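Retry 2 of 3 after timeout on previous attempt. Resubmitting structure tokens to design endpoint.
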């Protein structure tokens, strides 16, 4: 994993293109076809693209804005290929759903969910949830299925249930935006290699390399969908959104923060603060001085705990850095194979050298994290015993988390 300098202080609605129903995602970095057809509700039976005229819902009142979301609305793009169509058709939790591809998510599928019980004149908070490993595929569990085949269905269900509960608890309204990642794809700088588990380029716009992910564009497209098609009053939508990532979804938060956006009010890492993810997100927030809150929810001893977890890099990295001066003579006296290890060490020469170079940059973050970020404004740590896999159900949208400042 590439590691960059970290500092706790200052650190130096677009439409999709004409549909192409025969295009396969594997044949191109993204799809821009967004043909939409209605299912399971008579008010949305007619076919239309997501930029088409609004569904005929009750008009928003003027001058007192109000939303007019039709309970039970289901709209699904004809080219959705991730299992979302089946999921929407079998969802029994009420509310309104839209599923289709959006260019800001690289042309991949996105689910938008308005939980039941929307208050017509209340403010609307948008929550963008970036899922973890293997969750780009949505398939209901059946006997004999491997976890990586059904976990996406479970995580989506957990997140929607959490947002439904949040809607019932809070005074305002919430809308869930659930983009799907590429899962794995070629990366710039790597020849003949695919990431085997998760999409490290998610929300990292590199058009010259074929990556068109763009959070600002995605936000604009989502606004068009929820106002033009689902009946949300645009005047009631909060300017600042919650962007949250669970597990490997944390890398999307880092990428969109580093790409630059003024749209995020809070970055919420749900057991997703792996090395160079939450720290670099925070550094980007400091760089842009946009006032966003960064919240890290961490399962104590879990996979993202850098002091007690599976990869306790805040503990191992200083030890590796300290070993480099003695190992340096062996490692650099003569040209050795890249994976050579000094006698008595389990780490390679390259690992020890990198640790020595980078630990001074990471030490400040690890020390502050150990102290719970107690003296750092707009950065907070919430430690929990809730397991990694249950965090989307327990904390999505800020459910069950203390209000910032409490």
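Retry 2 succeeded. Sequence:
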């Amino acid at each position: 994993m590439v590691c960059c300098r970290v500092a706790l202080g200052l650190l130096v609605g677009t439409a999709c293109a004409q549909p192409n129903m025969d295009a396969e995602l594997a044949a191109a970095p993204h799809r821009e076809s967004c043909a939409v057809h209605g299912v399971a509700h008579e008010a949305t039976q007619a076919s239309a693209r997501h930029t088409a005229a609004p569904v005929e819902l009750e008009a928003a009142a003027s001058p007192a804005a109000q939303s007019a979301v039709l309970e039970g609305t289901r709209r699904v793009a004809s080219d959705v290929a991730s299992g979302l169509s089946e999921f929407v058709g079998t969802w029994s939790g009420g509310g309104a759903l839209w599923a289709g591809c959006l260019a800001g998510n690289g042309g991949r599928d996105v689910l938008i969910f308005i939980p039941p019980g929307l208050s017509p004149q209340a403010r609307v908070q948008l929550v963008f949830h970036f899922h973890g490993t293997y969750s780009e595929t949505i398939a209901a569990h059946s006997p004999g299925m491997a976890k990586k085949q059904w976990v996406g269905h479970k995580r989506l269900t957990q997140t929607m249930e959490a947002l439904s509960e949040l809607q019932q608890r809070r005074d305002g309204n919430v809308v869930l935006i659930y983009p799907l990642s590429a899962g794995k794809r070629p990366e710039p700088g790597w020849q003949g290699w695919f990431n085997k588990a998760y999409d490290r380029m998610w929300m990292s716009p590199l058009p010259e390399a074929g990556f068109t992910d763009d959070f600002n564009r995605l936000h604009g497209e989502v606004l068009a969908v929820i106002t033009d098609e689902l009946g949300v009053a645009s005047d009631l939508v909060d300017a600042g959104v919650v962007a949250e990532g669970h597990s490997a979804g944390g890398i999307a938060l880092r990428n969109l923060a580093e790409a630059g956006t003024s749209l995020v009010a809070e970055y919420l890492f749900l057991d997703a603060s792996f090395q160079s993810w939450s720290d670099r997100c925070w550094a980007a927030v400091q760089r842009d001085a946009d006032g966003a809150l960064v919240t890290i929810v961490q399962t104590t001893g879990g996979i993202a705990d850098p002091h007690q977890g599976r990869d306790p890099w805040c503990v191992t990295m200083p030890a590796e850095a300290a070993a480099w001066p003695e190992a340096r003579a062996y490692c650099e006296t003569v040209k050795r194979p890249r994976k050579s290890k000094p006698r008595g060490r389990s780490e390679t020469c390259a690992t020890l050298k990198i640790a020595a170079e980078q630990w001074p940059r990471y030490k400040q973050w690890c020390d502050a994290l150990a102290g719970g970020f107690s003296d750092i404004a707009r950065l907070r740590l919430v430690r929990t015993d809730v397991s990694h896999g249950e965090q989307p159900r327990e904390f999505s949208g800020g459910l069950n988390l203390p209000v910032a400042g409490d």
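Attempt log closed. Residues 147-169 form the longest helix (23 residues).
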